Model the fold of this input.
Amino acid sequence: MKKLVISIVLLNLLAACASEKPKEAAAPAPVAATAPVAAPAPATVVAVDPLNDPSSILSKRSVYFPLDVSAVQADDKPIVLAHAKYLSEHQNRKVRVEGNCDERGSKEYNLALGQRRAESVKKMLVLGGAKASQIETVSYGEEKPLCKEHNESCWKQNRRSDIKYQ
Done:
């Protein structure tokens, strides 16, 4: 029994080690002398502006806030940091960060909250590598709503800061 097991193991080892040599590739057939073939035209490379590419995070330009909050939320930090990186790599570009609020609260309160939201986004852009001189902030308070209905889903859309390239 022991000899049989050893024989089977040895046969398996030999079979595993045995392999065919790879066949050599055939030499290319000689080309008959003909007129020279023109090289293919180089492919035209079209540069896609990442700011307008819908698949780019840079196409997202709004940062949203909860009610009465001006700190950039974790969900929107990647958007702000992507814009910061873009601005640091394109120092000739400038942006205006526009702070907005929903309709609740007094006009003065909403203008101040919109400004704090815009300044919060600016601070994160600068910390991400953009220069402060590239960024202007403004507050529109409740004056530029995206949605004009009077419900929470609409108000959520209006509590934002927009990054607008100039």
